[in-house]
Amino acid sequence: MFLVNERIGIYGVKEPAQTEIVVRLHPVGKRAYGWGYEDDTSAALNWLMEHVQPGMTVADIGAGTGILSIVAVQLGGVVTAYEIDEAVWEIAAENFRLNGYNATHIDFLRAYDDRQGFDLVVANLGFDQDYSLILTAGKEVWISDQA
Fold this sequence. Notes:
The protein has 147 residues and is of the alpha/beta class. The chain is built from 5 helices and 7 strands. It has one domain: 3-Layer(aba) Sandwich (Rossmann fold).
């Protein structure tokens, strides 16, 4: 178990939950990013806690383990998770299932329609790329400083 803050706990598959917001992550797939203990992932989780209101639309770009999407859903957000790497997506999809959610693979760069718009966009990406599309995708945007 790892406590992100007093409300969010990251747990293994069978660990007993002790927090209001419970995220279960399968221990396989270390290739994916976003396990909760990284500074930028914790910062993104805290940003979501401050910003997500029930019914808000949220885009998680570069979903990695799916941790940000899972928390946003538990906070009442209507979430679309995007991941370009299909192998990493399988890790996220397994974690979505583990937490009781369904998922379909979507590649943001191919699927995003700028007329769609989101209330919030969170992008915890660890590499350099063109962020212009991401920056215009939501009313409020959080991008990790790792990018």
